[in-house]
Amino acid sequence: KVDYDVCSNYGNWLYSAGVGNDPRDNRKFNVIKQGLDYDGNGDYIRLWVPELQGIKGADIHSPWALSSAALSKAGVTLGETYPRPVVTAPEWSRHISQRPGGSPHPRGRRGPAQALAQHQDRGIDFYFSRKKDV
């Protein structure tokens, strides 16, 4: 049995590509966040991208952010054994933490305390205004 709905699938692919219908301004699909949310340990990437198998844990989602020593230990040379990123979206940086080793949060999420503290000073106007650089 194949689970396939033409309208839903095409709509999701368009949305993921950033050309779908979304009423919110400047909406982008964040591949780093999705990878951390749904493949926190990077097992899926390790299965299909053998060049990165030496990278442990969630670091596999952003190998370009690793130190030269960590890349060398994993047997990865950016630009040779694995390509450098073509683009790096600014919104990815918030999912690559400054923890020792550069590892993102294991599940790609902040704990409830940090999330609450981060948003407690934002009123409803923040969420419905056009200016989002606050």
Defining traits:
134 residues, mainly alpha, DNA Cyclobutane Dipyrimidine Photolyase, subunit A, domain 3
Please tell me the CATH architecture of the domain at 28-97 by its name.
Answer: Orthogonal Bundle
Structural class: mainly alpha
How large a portion of the residues is in β-strands, by DSSP E?
Answer: under 5%
| Unreliable sequence segments | 98-124
In CATH, the topology of the domain at 28-97 is named: DNA Cyclobutane Dipyrimidine Photolyase, subunit A, domain 3
- C-alpha-based Rg, rounded: 18 Å
Shape: globular
Strand tally: 0
Distance between the termini: 48 Å
Order of helices and strands: HHHHHH
* Range of helix content: 25-40%
Report the oligomer: single chain
The largest sheet is:
none
What's the level 1 CATH class of the domain at 28-97?
Mainly Alpha
CATH superfamily of the domain at 28-97: DNA Cyclobutane Dipyrimidine Photolyase, subunit A, domain 3
Mean pLDDT: 75
Number of helices: 6
GO biological process, one term: photoreactive repair
Binding site for FAD: 3-5
Protein name: CRYD protein
Keywords: FAD, Flavoprotein
Describe the structure.
- The chain is mainly alpha-helical.
- It has a domain at 28-97: Orthogonal Bundle (DNA Cyclobutane Dipyrimidine Photolyase, subunit A, domain 3).
- The protein is built from six helices and no strands.
- It is globular.
